[in-house]
Amino acid sequence: MASLKDLRNRIASVKATQKITKAMQMVAAAKLRRAQAAAEDARPFSQRMDAVMANIATAIGDDAASAPKLLAGTGSDASHLLIMCTAERGLCGGFNSAIARLTRDRARELLAAGKTVTILPVGKKGADVVRSEFSEIMMPVVDLRDVKHVGYENAADVARSVLDMFNDGRFDIATLFYSEFESVISQVPTAQQIIPPTIAKVETDESASASVMYDYEPDEGEILADLLPRNVAVQIFRALLENAASEQGARMSAMDNATRNAGEMIDSLNLTYNRQRQAQITTELIEIIAGAEAL
Amino acid sequence: MAETFTFELVSPEKLLLSNEASMVTLPGADGDMGVMGNHAPVMTGLRPGYVEATLADGSKDEYFVRGGFADITPNAVTILAEFALPRAELTREVFEEQRAIAQSDYEAHHKAGDEEKAANARTYLDQLNHLEPTLLPA
User: In this predicted model, what pLDDT tens digit does every residue of A232-246 receive, in sequence order?
Assistant: First the structure.
């Protein structure tokens, strides 16, 4: 049985922990607001981008031979690049491991099917999870630890190295793994194929005919050559922003849970402590009374 | 009064402007162009430079843009710029930063032996240098 002093120390230490988790929760809540706003600000761009992509893709049509490889794919699916975006810090519940697990499952599946797989980890936490299994097919981690707010430049850097690899013919299909921010309590790990891009088919006749009439300056091919790499960067940027918001959301709810747990623990420790103190007082009283009666 | 159309200027970070405008002047890949309502659909690349929008109420807004393209339809103009900034916020520091980015791009491509990309970056750098006196009168 722990002594009263031990219990007191225990309570003090749990209280200290609770203070830390509480503070982390509040910090995450503040950061979440900012990350969420950033993700929302970036949405119009990627939406317009998608629309334009769809337009051009329909204009080029099904003539796959003339379409650039970035749009139509290389025609093979032998080698895959998995871009795994995770956080740089832990203590955010299942956030990192959920993304890492999704990537790992996909990698196993592809390897079992005899494909070549390369993993490009962005953020070190996810890399730590899959390193033991896939160390020989993993590329160096893209480190964003010093980046306070993810900017477009960061995404463009990642996109540049991805595109260089693509042009060197080192993979056929690239898939982006990140966590879609749905709400504070729900973040959905998502896999999105970015090379070749999955383009929503334009359904309405109206927009299809509108795209035919487009004039292109300088010309279709050059605009497309400029647009496609940019689209890769935009998709990565979007993933990073969604991730940033998800991470803070996940951390916030994880820390909220931790704070609540600590509270429960303190309650039960307090109960034990009070019982024991009471028992000790009772014992002392009994001793005094017994002593007095003996006289 | 000319017909108005929806004008939107978006950068990857945010939506800078979304408003009714009566005329927009933008630095197209093949030359500056003025766009008014009911323009034929055009998709054009952008050179670095200024976008000037005359809004429906007659006021004018100016933005510095770099990279990207404009999607012009009869009832809307959407500019997707890689980088965009209100003119008032374009200071010499920002300009130098942009130039440094262009310079390092060019050097990186040049070193990698990718002559085509290097030439593109070079063109862009030249455009920036050429624009300097107009952008920032000394």
Answer: 888 899 899 999 999
Tokens of residue A129, six digits: 């999870």
Q: Where are the beta strands (DSSP E) in B29-121?
A: 31-36, 42-45, 49-55, 60-73, 76-86
Pick the CATH number of B5-87 from 3.50.50.60, 2.40.110.10, 2.60.15.10, 2.60.40.1120: 2.60.15.10
Tokens of B125: 């750098």
Please name the member of B8, B28, B73 whose beta carbon is closest to the beta carbon of A217: B28
Q: What is the pLDDT of residues A13-28, one digit of tens each?
A: 999 999 999 999 999 9
State which residue of chain B sits closest to A229, comparing Cα positions. B68
String of b and e for A221-254 (b: at least 16 CB within 10 Å)? eebbebbbbbbbbbbbbbbbbbbbbbbbbbbbbb
User: What are the structural domain ranges in chain B?
Assistant: 5-87, 91-135
* Cβ contact A1:A7 at 8 Å: no
Cβ–Cβ below 8 Å for B12 and A216: no
Q: Which residues, listed in sequence order, are joined to residue A110 by a DSSP beta bridge?
A: none
Residue A217 contacts B, CB cutoff 8 Å: yes
Candidates B17, B42, B43: best to mutate against A (most CBs of A within 10 A) is B43
Asked whether the beta carbons of residue A56 and residue B43 sit closer than 8 angstroms, the reply is yes
Give this prediction's pTM: 0.83
- How far, in Å, CA of A142 to CA of A238, rounded? 16
Can you name the residues that pair with A215 across neighbouring β-strands? Answer: B42
ipTM field: 0.73
Catalytic residue at A85?
no
In angstroms, the CA A117 to CA A48 distance is 32
Closest CA to A219 of B92, B43, B55, B129: B43
